[in-house]
């Protein structure tokens, strides 16, 4: 063995020894194909340990865990720990060609996952191509040992994972979408915990059922793992009390529905009745369907369901037998908003407030020293060579669809990742000039906009921030090509959502309405169609991806990267890479 190889092995053993000497939990993730049958047909899907959805990770606030990811599949893959801030440790964050190169078939990557102040529900998912459609699972973060929930302890805690299912192989869906230059094929079904539910063909026997007892409190850990749709969710004749979002507690908010964007997680308490609300029926549908407002934007208009079943008291037999059900489950006809109900969607998201008490304080940046104003737009590129070859320009008027932030459509590197290029001072991979203001000012939300505004510039542009900067970022939606809501996600940070609005942002008017007292702390914010949202955060974490969590918009280029310089002290500096980083 060569000296360099011996040295690498020594470093690896030292790394594993240090890991094992700390109080920690180890998980083994095996990426592999597995056959699953949905909607009357069977296909192989990529899974973790053969499970769909994947295994649930359970930790306490402040824990560190180690996940050994071994790729036995046929495709490159990365795993992202969505909402986990990973202080100083972007090496294990997961986005392909941003903070790591993919784990190739047959290879292994040992990921160190550092939890800090997150508490509640987060999730993990693949972050390469569109593999997260089936490679995802819940992360349950319990209060630090010796403490408890800021609400009465629930009788049980249940993950509710909302997803999408295609009959086709998901990579075929992606390939056809990219080649076409148009919109992707919509999913064939939505799912709840991997099952489409009663309203789809061949699906009723597998419908997820949650058996509950009377007069009990249940904590639903709701995750939107859908690829391309914001969702409404409701339970017939039952209210939900929202107590957390994106791994942070909120003031209790009682509601008959929720609006949840792709990437978001919501903790909601379900209080069951002293007796079932309808004496003649002990079954109630949980239902989810799309919220979609874009003109000429295709979407899945179906509805997924699961069943809430009341158990008969004093039964000693198993849950399935004990239900003794009568009649068809009741549907939340009057509670589940219609697909284009913008008022309901906005009323929900703008009603969220941080808990902001002595045990769970907040720290909203007040003195802002870095202002960023970014448009988020759907765009088009002209058809290459001016004509439609092999039907590859299916965007409006024979163009190819794209997306941008501040008129920059992000281009992923493919030979080395952004983090490695930054750490090792490798030039030519990125340009550190992502604009902090749009290059052109216009009526962003106007109905009739010049076609010349639709074409962005390509580039791997990033924004460098000084350590400790207090950042205010205004996302401004535009009506270019098609105005639509955008769930914007920032890796490595939680941010305070201090304001929302419709139309063009006006600092003189809109800053007066900012909530600086108890704004919700989130990692994903729904920017309303033809509107704006303002977030604030302190830049104290090194290299992190920001993107729209609608997968088609990420693919089109609605992305950028924040690079935060090292601070003065060791605890404010980027950790060195682990010894087994996947090679490019």
Number of domains: 3
**Based on helices, strands and strand pairing, what is the structural class?**
mainly beta
Widest β-sheet, arrangement of strands: 10-9-12-17-14-15
* CATH class wording of the largest domain: Mainly Beta
Number of helices, where a helix is a run of at least 4 consecutive DSSP H or I residues: 7
Q: Which value, in Å, is the CA radius of gyration?
A: 24 Å
Largest sheet: 6 strands, mixed
* CATH fold title of the largest domain: Immunoglobulin-like
Regions with little confidence, pLDDT below 50 for 5+ residues: 1-23
Approximate shape: globular
What does this structure look like?
The chain has 584 residues and is mainly beta. The chain has three domains: 127 residues, Immunoglobulin-like; 208 residues, Immunoglobulin-like; 203 residues, Sandwich (Immunoglobulin-like), CATH 2.60.40. It is 10% helix and 36% strand. It is built from seven helices and 32 strands. It has a six-stranded mixed β-sheet with strand order 10-9-12-17-14-15, with no helix packed on it. β1 and β2 form a beta hairpin. The N terminus is likely disordered.
Features:
Immunoglobulin-like, disordered N terminus, mainly beta, 584 residues, six-stranded mixed beta sheet, 10% helix, single chain
Question: Layout of SSEs?
Answer:
Blueprint: H1 3-21, E1 25-38, E2 41-48, E3 57-60, E4 64-71, E5 79-82, E6 108-114, E7 120-126, E8 136-142, E9 156-165, H2 170-180, E10 189-192, E11 209-212, E12 217-224, E13 230-235, E14 240-245, E15 248-255, E16 258-260, E17 265-271, E18 283-291, E19 303-310, H3 319-322, H4 342-349, E20 370-381, E21 400-405, E22 408-410, H5 418-423, E23 457-459, E24 462-465, E25 469-477, E26 486-490, E27 495-502, H6 507-510, E28 521-522, E29 524-527, E30 531-539, E31 543-548, H7 551-556, E32 559-564
Keywords: Apoplast, Copper, Glycoprotein, Lignin degradation, Metal-binding, Oxidoreductase, Repeat, Secreted, Signal
Family: Belongs to the multicopper oxidase family.
Enzyme class: oxidoreductase
